[in-house]
Prior knowledge:
Number of domains: 2
CATH architecture of the largest domain: Alpha-Beta Complex
Strand order of the largest sheet: 3-2-1-4-7-6
Largest sheet: 6 strands, mixed
Strand content: 15-25%
Number of helices: 8
Low-confidence stretches: none
Oligomer: single chain
Amino acid sequence: MLVSAGMKRAYVSMLCGGSRYTPGAEVLGRSLVESGSTAERILLVTRDVPTEARARLSGQGWSLRLVEPIANPRPERQMLPRFANVFTKLRAWELAELDRVVLLDADTLVLDNVDDLFDRPGFAAAPDFFLPDRFNSGVIVLSPSRDTFGRMVDALADASGYDGGDQGFLNDFFGEWYAMPSAHRLPVGYNTPNFIFQFMHGHPQVRETIEREVKILHYLVQKPWLASSTLTGASAPWWRRYYDLHPEEATKLQRRVHAAEDWTFEHLARLVVG
């Protein structure tokens, strides 16, 4: 029997700082539904997320939890302006009524059922593409604990993570991750950068393997909904789910454009590397 069979479990994401990431949360939710998962979907939202956006997400099946934001303790160190709000995701550890949580950033996309993640140990994450001896915080398996959350809040006073965001902080807090037993280290297919997926997809020799093993895409560089054109790959998979939710915005031309964007990335990357 799976460990998760009797667990109280949920997929959790976070939305704060206005409505810029609302389309990302919409598509993430849609992709979880398509994956066949029946686990609860919880969205942590702050008061600055517009009422209209909250209502739309609630109507799409997200269970909304209003939370207070956690300010970046070292704003002078943050690499990107959006890192001002990312520490709010630590509130996932406050969901003590749950046994296990899979925490997903709103710029991720689930391609296949990943309910098996609930059977992972209470902290598990995948290597970061740029710094593989550290983990990427876009996909995390965790066991909620108010005690752990309290220790995190205490540690924020001395936060000095390498990126000035939640990822650097969490890598310091769970500094033993790299040496943990293998069950704590997720295969890269559970957190694959979109540009890596598209590059590998462009090589017929490995395409079948990539399509089988990649389960979660992470749009690290460009967010499809925030760019006039997605030049870093995996545009079509994201937009297909968005148009399923918003068919009034879809046209055949737009779908062809997104497919062309992915084709262009594949072939340019092949030329550069080749």
